[in-house]
Amino acid sequence: MSTSIETRYASSPLEAKSWDTAQAREALHIPSLFEPGQVKLVYSHYDRFITGGAMPAQQPLPLETVDPLKAEYFLERRELGIINTGGAGTVTVDGEVFELDFKEALYIGRGKKEVVFASKNAASPALFYINSTPAHMTYPTRRVTRKEADVVVLGGQETSNHRTINKLLVNSVLPTCQLQMGMTELKPGNTWNTMPAHTHDRRMEVYFYFEVPQGQAVCHFWGQPQETRHIWMQNNQAVISPPWSIHSGAGTSNYTFIWGMAGENLDYGDMDHCAIPDLR
């Protein structure tokens, strides 16, 4: 079987206060998502959110069902979002082929039985970053290019957070049940993302950091606004953000990250902002 999965359990803010570095990383940090010829998945008990990576090599790579789902096929009761962070590739959904270039996205609705990943060139394989959530109804499968994204430019050079937010799989672009995904690109010379920070107890998130230059890193901040902690992130690594936690980062270089979220509503602006001087 080429699809593997591990489980991460939900934790309370009180429990998290006592974690040391190793415990925080074990609970929240996802160090490796891409291995040739493998689909690697992490199942979080926060909103039953699945984070994963598919790296097809010489042969096409199917998305197989996994035991925690207790389902005949992976998308029997789920929806799926994919963003390609590697070389050109294809995703075949019940026989229909969708081409995905670098930083292009694909939404797959509930009920699709067969999903197969492939790279166009094994020497430059596709790296399909995956998010999946439970779904209550079926929406159409659709590819979303960079040109079709809902784009917002925020921040500024003077605050080191000049960035472009590409909303790819969100309800301003296409219908979904609860999954939302997008990509934030920091401009050269900028380091901070999602600052001022916020929480939203109605939704959880997962951040996936990529385009982190060799030898550089991103410091991801998490925790309640008055009890913040940090996790150092390398290229192609992800981190789970509980609903009660801030989610922000600062890099030793500029970088790109994908945000995926699920929960109570689809309002992108649903945020409880934290004033910078109030962070602890």
Automatic annotation (TrEMBL):
<dbReference type="InterPro" id="IPR027449">
    <property type="entry name" value="KduI_N"/>
</dbReference>
<feature type="binding site">
    <location>
        <position position="200"/>
    </location>
    <ligand>
        <name>Zn(2+)</name>
    </ligand>
</feature>
<feature type="binding site">
    <location>
        <position position="247"/>
    </location>
    <ligand>
        <name>Zn(2+)</name>
    </ligand>
</feature>
<dbReference type="GO" id="GO:0042840">
    <property type="term" value="P:D-glucuronate catabolic process"/>
</dbReference>
<dbReference type="GO" id="GO:0045490">
    <property type="term" value="P:pectin catabolic process"/>
</dbReference>
<keyword id="KW-0862">Zinc</keyword>
<dbReference type="InterPro" id="IPR007045">
    <property type="entry name" value="KduI"/>
</dbReference>
<protein>
    <recommendedName>
        <fullName>4-deoxy-L-threo-5-hexosulose-uronate ketol-isomerase</fullName>
        <ecNumber>5.3.1.17</ecNumber>
    </recommendedName>
</protein>
<dbReference type="GO" id="GO:0008697">
    <property type="term" value="F:4-deoxy-L-threo-5-hexosulose-uronate ketol-isomerase activity"/>
</dbReference>
<dbReference type="InterPro" id="IPR014710">
    <property type="entry name" value="RmlC-like_jellyroll"/>
</dbReference>
<dbReference type="GO" id="GO:0008270">
    <property type="term" value="F:zinc ion binding"/>
</dbReference>
<keyword id="KW-0479">Metal-binding</keyword>
<feature type="binding site">
    <location>
        <position position="198"/>
    </location>
    <ligand>
        <name>Zn(2+)</name>
    </ligand>
</feature>
<comment type="function">
    <text>Catalyzes the isomerization of 5-dehydro-4-deoxy-D-glucuronate to 3-deoxy-D-glycero-2,5-hexodiulosonate.</text>
</comment>
<dbReference type="InterPro" id="IPR011051">
    <property type="entry name" value="RmlC_Cupin_sf"/>
</dbReference>
<comment type="similarity">
    <text>Belongs to the KduI family.</text>
</comment>
<dbReference type="GO" id="GO:0019698">
    <property type="term" value="P:D-galacturonate catabolic process"/>
</dbReference>
<feature type="binding site">
    <location>
        <position position="205"/>
    </location>
    <ligand>
        <name>Zn(2+)</name>
    </ligand>
</feature>
<comment type="pathway">
    <text>Glycan metabolism; pectin degradation; 2-dehydro-3-deoxy-D-gluconate from pectin: step 4/5.</text>
</comment>
<keyword id="KW-0413">Isomerase</keyword>
<dbReference type="Pfam" id="PF04962">
    <property type="entry name" value="KduI"/>
</dbReference>
<dbReference type="InterPro" id="IPR021120">
    <property type="entry name" value="KduI/IolB_isomerase"/>
</dbReference>
